[in-house]
Amino acid sequence: MRDRVAKGPLIPYLLWIAFFVIAPIALIVYYSMLDLNGNFTLENYKRFFSPVYIQMTLTSFFYAVIITFFTLLISYPMAFILTKTKHKYLWLMFIIIPSWINLLLKTYAFIGIFGLYGPINAVVSVFGIESQQILFTDFSFIFVSVYIFIPFMIIPIFNSLDKLNPTLVDAARDLGASPFTTFRRVIWPLTIEGVKSGIQVTFIPALSLFMITRLIAGNQVITLGTAIEQQFLVAQNWGMGSTIAVFLVLIMLVSMLFTGRKAKGGRV
Residue 1: its pLDDT value, please? Predict the structure, then answer.
């Protein structure tokens, strides 16, 4: 009787997982084995291992790593400063609020900012410098992506830093540890789980970006997300689009397993 009561609340959760996680993935796998005529084939998987798609996968991975690196580079110091600031939760809210705005609206805002007649080029022209094409470049793509992912990276890191026992930092300093040593041996190891969570919520979505690549990068950057969109909406090749999606899911799962490992215990 106790087992039934204990398992009862799990039923809605299991049904949710079955209908909205397992079933869609199974449907994607099914469509990945169909050609344009609806016949069973493995040709889509063979095509994925062609140089074009391998290069596209490496490009997606490269940009995802770059975006995650710069997002972490900005977010960790910012989260650390927030924990030492008065009214830290108020300032954190100001950082989170932009993430509530629709992604498409923010993207169009950056199109205006980076445009030839935008505020950046207007300021540059004051110094007699010719207007520069900032849009449709790697810089604009990475900049906008980092801006969008910063709130998602900051939150888990902020939570880890906020829960850090300050007496451990004080003890390290009393024992003669330099600020860098204190960070390397105390602060970083004790907040690494927050960093891993931030990397997960940044790296995994960065692999499948497609709206920003189209509007900000002008399709100069072709990622797996862009390829999926083109296969489904332009080429109407659901089989190839599903195949790319299958490999994208596999890459995401590997990334989650890698970043989800618990840090080995060590000396502090």
Answer: 47
Spatial separation of the C-alpha atoms in residues 187 and 184, rounded to whole Å: 6
Residue among 218, 114, 99 nearest 149 (CA): 99
**Residue (of 192, 206, 180) closest to 266 by Cα position:** 192
pLDDT in tens, 49-59: 999 999 999 99
Round to whole Å and give the CA distance between 198 and 117.
Answer: 35
In angstroms, the CA 106 to CA 216 distance is 11
- Residue 91 sits at the vertex; the CA angle it makes with 86 and 95, to the nearest 5 degrees, is 160
Whether 26 shows a pLDDT value over 60: the answer reads yes
CB 184 within 8 A of CB 45: no
**Quick one: tokens of 206?**
């960065």
β-partners of residue 188 are none
- Fold classification of 51-258 is MetI-like fold (1.10.3720)
Quote the CA–CA distance of 254 and 235 in Å, as a whole number.
Answer: 29
CA distances from 79 to 184, 210, 214 (A): 17, 28, 31
Indicate the DSSP class of residue 194. H
Please give the structure tokens belonging to residue 211: 């709206």
Q: Provide the whole-model pTM.
A: 0.87
pLDDT, one tens digit per residue, over 125-149 is 888 888 888 888 899 999 999 999 9
Among residues 262, 91, 265, 77, the alpha carbon closest in space to that of 183 is found at 77
| Neighbouring C-alpha atoms within 13 Å toward the C-beta of 97 | 6
Phi first, then psi: what are they for 209, rounded to 5°?
Answer: -60, 140
Q: What is the CA radius of gyration of the chain?
A: 23
Residue boundaries of the structural domains of the chain: 51-258
